[in-house]
Amino acid sequence: MDTLELLAHPVRLRVVHAMRGGRTLTASDLVARIPDVSRATVYRHVDLLVGGGVLEVAGERRVRGAVERRYRLRQDRAVIDPDAPLTREDHRRGFAAATAALLAEFGAYLDREGSDPAADLVGYRQHAVWLSEEELLDLIAGMRAAIAPRLANGPAPGRAQYLLSPILFPIEPSAAGPEPA
Question: What sign for the dihedral angle of Cα 169, 175, 179, 181?
């Protein structure tokens, strides 16, 4: 299974999100973090991610006669090669999986005891903006500059993990002819 196929599944994406930040978690820990997905399904997807090299076994211990494994995310394997040629259908599948995972994560957040979207500063706004290619590249660079340093943050007192999902695509073709006044 190639990386796109491996990561283009909502449950596997949720497992990857849960593992970010240098965490080492057991499959049972993941079941607790993804309560709306059955135990068997989480275990099956963890096995697929291990088989695909996205997760690795960080340690093992005996618990009541069974072996409990702790897993960690291999950051270098949890990405789709930006130089890999993707078809329109690949993009469609990847986007569908990402939005399905986003919906599931948001539903799980709302279902948690004590969730408070206002206090947690939850946001989900959309803005349609007109940009030249130069302005678009500048916007992307600015977003990367704002986000990239925070990707290295790990769990710490006073920190909560947030899911940030920038989505950017043109909603209409570029206008041919003169610019509007």
Answer: negative
